[in-house]
Recover the amino acids of this structure.
């Protein structure tokens, strides 16, 4: 009986007031269920309404003691649900149910829980939102960007401070300077042939030599519909690189057209508010434009951030990559990452790009910093 009652309670919360003819009211289960139902219903009843369902009010009147507003809902949901659940609900509120009241007032928008998922959702739907909520969108994106910059900038600064000098040891024990080859060699005397284990007594770290010659880094970023998360990170990476000495950054966004936003590379928020996610993908055209920006091939890195789903000419794409590689340009291909940081890309095109001289990998921003450090020697 207890199991049946708990099952009924859960189904009531899932189905909401539309189940009242078959299940007891939420208040009948005691506790805070009525409040939970009201908070869930404020958001998810929109799903029923979109499908043409209507809620008939009985003799007792509305189940809601007071009508929730978007702002009240936000505060109540934040209090009632775990952080991970609340973050998911606020993303659905904006992305799926267009609950834009949450963004109408920048001060209210600032109370949203900042997350990469929320920023990605805003970037995806921004073109469909009324201009009246633009200030609120900017507030949320700024908070997410600040958080990412705070976490990623130290890795970039350390990794790109200079090239590794494996012939010189460093007293600074930084993970970016960890020399695993030297560490293994130094501890081989501790190898146990019976257990086939190596006991590490001493860690080795390399020093770094500052660069004396500048590098040009061209970030070529796919802004087609599936690339919101990658565009977010690319904008952050560009701003960090733009602030480093000895690095000149060009930032190019593309779908079927190409937009050079290099003048905004230092300002990731402006880049993200400029990006127009959606449309097709013409990687060949974008790399052709990047080719025109190359002045010193041997000291230029072109980093293509894309899912490699080419909508233009594949032969043109491969020919452009081949020319850049033969000229001495360092080519990096970063596969797009999904919401779980898993790579999403066309492996067939990725393999063909690699065959033409592009180094292809799926990396998080901090690993991208280390990759750049390795090639910019």
């Amino acid at each position: 009986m207890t199991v049946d009652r708990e099952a009924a309670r859960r189904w009531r919360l899932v189905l909401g007031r539309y189940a009242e003819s078959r299940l007891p009211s939420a208040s009948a289960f005691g506790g805070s269920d009525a409040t939970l139902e009201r908070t869930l219903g404020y958001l998810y009843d929109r799903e029923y309404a979109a499908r043409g369902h209507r809620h008939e009010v009985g003799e007792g009147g509305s189940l809601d003691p007071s009508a929730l507003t978007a702002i009240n809902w936000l505060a109540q949901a934040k209090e009632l649900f775990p952080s991970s659940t609340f973050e998911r609900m606020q993303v659905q509120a904006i992305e799926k149910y267009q609950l834009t009241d949450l963004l109408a007032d920048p001060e209210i928008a600032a109370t949203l829980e900042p997350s990469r998922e929320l920023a990605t959702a805003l970037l995806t739907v921004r073109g469909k939102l009324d201009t009246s909520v633009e200030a609120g969108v900017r507030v949320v994106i700024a908070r997410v960007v600040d958080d990412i910059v705070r976490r990623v900038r130290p890795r970039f600064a350390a990794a790109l401070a200079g090239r590794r000098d494996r012939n010189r040891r460093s007293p600074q024990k930084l993970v970016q300077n960890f020399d695993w080859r030297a560490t293994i060699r130094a501890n081989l005397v501790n190898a146990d042939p019976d257990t086939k284990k190596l006991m590490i007594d001493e860690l080795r770290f390399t020093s770094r030599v500052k660069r004396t010659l500048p590098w040009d880094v061209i970030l070529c970023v796919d802004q087609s519909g599936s690339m919101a998360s990658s565009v977010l990170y690319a904008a952050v990476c560009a701003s960090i690189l733009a602030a480093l000495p000895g690095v000149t950054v060009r930032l190019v966004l593309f779908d079927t057209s190409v937009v050079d936003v290099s003048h905004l590379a230092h300002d990731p928020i402006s880049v993200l508010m400029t990006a127009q996610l959606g449309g097709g993908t013409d990687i060949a055209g974008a790399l052709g434009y990047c080719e025109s920006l190359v002045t010193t091939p041997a000291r230029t890195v072109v980093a293509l951030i894309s899912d490699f789903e080419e909508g233009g000419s594949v032969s043109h794409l491969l020919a452009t990559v081949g020319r850049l590689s033969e000229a001495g340009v360092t080519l990096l291909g970063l596969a797009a990452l999904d919401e779980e940081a898993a790579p999403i890309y066309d492996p067939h095109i990725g393999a063909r790009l690699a065959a033409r001289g592009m180094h292809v990998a799926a990396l998080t921003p901090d690993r991208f910093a280390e990759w750049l450090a390795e090639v910019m020697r």
Remarks:
- The domain at 215-375 is CATH 3.40.50.410 (Rossmann fold).
- DSSP finds 15 helices and eleven strands in the chain.
